[in-house]
């Protein structure tokens, strides 16, 4: 870190890219809602706090457009087809984060 700079806040979001909670499972504060909207609203709130969100989609049926909407920047959007490839992608991600964020 540069002298006098503050640490960056980063969230790596590991997901299959398809929210599947039922309306009752996302019933927060007495308000029901759809899981996709709930996740988008939560991501927006986190981004508003200055946190960089890096979505990592795992699997073969990833909605990359939706994941892009959750992330801070399309430059940080990642996807892997299975968990076996996850370690490599995360190592590359962390190496890049240490240099760029």
User: What's the overall average pLDDT, rounded?
Assistant: 80
Shape: flat
Binned, the helix content reads 25-40%
Count of helical regions: 3
Please write the string of helix (H) and strand (E) elements.
EHEHEH
| Binned strand content | 15-25%
Distance from N terminus to C terminus (CA atoms, Å) equals 10 Å
| Radius of gyration, taken over Cα atoms and rounded to an integer in Å | 15 Å
Main sheet strand line-up: 1-2-3
Low-confidence stretches: none
Oligomeric state as shown: single chain
Number of strands: 3
Helical/strand content category: alpha/beta
Q: Tell me about the biggest sheet?
A: 3 strands, parallel
């Amino acid at each position: 870190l540069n002298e006098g700079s503050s640490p960056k806040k980063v969230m790596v979001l590991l997901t299959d890219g398809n929210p599947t909670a039922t309306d009752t499972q996302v019933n927060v504060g007495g308000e029901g809602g759809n899981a996709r909207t709930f996740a988008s609203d939560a991501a927006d709130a986190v981004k508003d706090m200055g946190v960089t969100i890096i979505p990592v989609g795992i699997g073969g049926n990833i909605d990359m457009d939706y994941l892009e909407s959750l992330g801070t920047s399309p430059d940080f959007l990642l996807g892997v087809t299975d968990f076996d490839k996850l370690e490599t992608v995360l190592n590359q991600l962390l190496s890049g984060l240490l240099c760029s964020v």
